[in-house]
Amino acid sequence: MADLMLWGVLPYVVLVLFIGGAVWRYRYDQFGWTTRSSELYESRLLRIGSPLFHFGLLVVIIGHGVGLVVPRDWTRAAGVSDAAYHALALGLGAVAGVCTLAGVALLVWRRRTTGPVFSATTGNDKLMYAVLVLAIAAGLATTLVSTAAEFTGAHEPDYRTTVSVWWRSIWVLSPDVAAMAAAGAAFKVHALVGMALFAVFPFTRLVHAFSAPWFYLFRPYVVYRSRSGRTPPATRPAQRGWSR
Amino acid sequence: MGRVMAQVAMVMNLDKCIGCHTCSVTCKQAWTNRSGVEYAWFNNVETRPGQGYPRRWEDQERWRGGWTRTRGGRLTLRAGGRLKKLATLFANPLMPSIHDYYEPWTYDYGHLITAPLGDDIPVARPRSLLTGEPMQVTWSANWDDDLAGGPELAAQDPIVQQVGDRVRLEFEQTFMFYLPRICEHCLNPSCVASCPSGAMYKRAEDGIVLVDQDKCRGWRMCVTGCPYKKVYFNHKTGKAEKCTLCYPRIEVGMPTICSETCVGRLRYLGVVLYDAERVGEAAAVEDEKDLYPAQLDLLLDPDDPDVQEAARRDGIPDTWLASARRSPVYTLIKRHRVALPLHPEYRTMPMVWYIPPLSPVVEAVSGTGHDGEDADNLFGAIDTLRIPVEYLAELFTAGDPAPVERSLRTLAALRSHMRRVNLGQERDPSIAEAAGTTGEGLEELYRLLALAKYDDRYVIPTAYGVDDADRGVIEEIGCSLDFESGPGMGGMGAAHGRTPAPPFGEASGRPDPASVETFHALRTRQTSDAPADRADLKGRVNLLNWDGNGRPEGLFPPKEEP
Known about the structure:
The structure holds 2 protein chains of 2 kinds. Chain A has helices spanning 2-28, 44-69, 72-77, 82-113, 115-119, 123-152, 163-171, 177-181, 185-200, and one strand at residues 224-225. Chain A is mainly α. In chain A, helix 4 runs antiparallel to helix 6 (123-152) and helix 6 (123-152) runs antiparallel to helix 9. By secondary structure, chain B is of the alpha+beta class. In chain B, the strands form 6 sheets. In chain B, strands 13-12-1-15-14 form a 5-stranded mixed sheet, with helices on both faces. A two-stranded antiparallel sheet of chain B has the order 2-7. In chain B, strand 8 and strand 9 form a beta hairpin. The radius of gyration of chain B is 25 Å and the shape is globular. Classes of the chains: A mainly alpha, B alpha+beta. Strand 1 (224-225) of chain A pairs parallel with strand 8 of chain B.
């Protein structure tokens, strides 16, 4: 029953929150949709921490995509041995994960110790940072557990037959609860914290990720816009500034 | 002829600027009297020589603003092209920090009335508006006003460093003038080109450069892109903000706040027509010294029938054409060539022009006991007083002294010619000839520079759909932002229980239904003068943030029970 709620119902609740929340926020809070950058206050630490975190995160996201989307049979069919796949995934995952964690740690430390940045930190930010750091830490823990299992030969369910199968089944609306229930504890924790992150995502400053400005690469440099469809202003008898 | 576009441009006559900062203050009251932009001055007045605001903004070796010409003759952003912009999205290495502007502060006024009884009179100490902590005030937007700080600060002026030691020596003999600065509303705006989100744009009708507050995502690249450092990052909202050329006023034919309130009446506003298709070509000329002539060449003669026909073809209304023909700005820039652009070498084609100050020259001449209004004395002084001319040339013509000299000679001839007229002496055509003009030209210039009334200085056509006969008869309150889901100068009434909604200040802008956080932040800001929640300040009203409307809670102490 708990498994059904956690892996059968919760993902859909999170999806509704994530997609619905993003649509709702996009429609009603364009003005609040921003990075809320704190670079103006402090840039020395940001210049190290922020690229470390963001580029690390990009690699992590790509890794998640590959790990969750591509079934094991496909990579086997492509002639990639499981051992090679795992070595690559864990190696790359560990490096990217550590970069991301180090980056976010530096950013949180900067946020706490730099006066203006700390003053500009809202409760919303604090909650977001807690969930984000937890998600990254739990993710890194799964990598460690998997690596340890790889070296010690301990029995650890392969996430590609458990988590990934469950993840893909969500999208065809028949969640494979049993597959996820069979996954390791670290993966379960990571999945739960990840779902928490996605649930709060649209309501935090993280939304700036949705507006990654790819379009900039393709548009002309100078943008012109026309003022149109504006209601003409009201009129009254003329008065100069000094005669008011 | 390529596509004809109209641009509302400004000219400032620097000889008339007394450095009173009224323009800065009224601009601040109108646009940036909000938290998040405490440090931002859409209009500021700098003393030259001096470092300016933000500090040393002209040092493009460091800030890399504006455009640069590649060896192949193409224009590219000096801070790097599109790919580099995206690669440095996470930490912009070329963004000024708050300390390059100044750390905004307030004073702990509360201490004056809450201090315990003691022998010493309590004082209001400065507190940072960023952290709320006590701070030492060590810099501001005009810290080196009137050459305060002397050679130590002024020697840090990037132009002084460029022109060399000679300025510093002459500088001991006081050569100084004021430079009021707003956004240049460039024809080739590098801030717009730098915006990854496409939130910044140049308005097709009047050329005003604006930031779409709803589309801005806070990537901060515009701050880097603008070589004049006239785009500011609002650190509370996380959005870029900049001078709007007071477009709600311009649209109804009124001058900007800075122009309206200018004590010296030194600002001129008017329409110029330009050939939009040749902008890129003009901005990419090889020699920096050719940029001023190239920019001049872009401006089209509104009296030319071909230009008029092309303008009508491109949808410019007749009212705008008529306005362009009366434009004082076009007259000063192109007919008399006395107004010069600020730093054309940034290749942005700036549209706020300056008449260089003759007063340092006049003062030098009269200071030595000579007649400061005699044409020969002045001409000679312009030629020999290399320092002001070279300095001004670095400022206005990418280092080419000829246009500056020409402008100064015209101003000198004007003084001399008009003195003869005023004293009833015979007109001496050689004076005007020496400046490359005629007596009639000088008298026209005299009328425009010395006598021009409000309607002659500000020739602004109203926005489309409004008859030109209505110029200036449009109610300020009914500004064109005031429509449903507009960018929000009105319409806040419902959210704050106020009708009518205040057009400016903290409670202005449209309601933010999604962000509960913003609501709380707004309320906190309005009722405290501390940057974040401070329990002991709850319930107080910060009068500096109060826009004068209504009676906010906490304005008066609670009524005591009888």
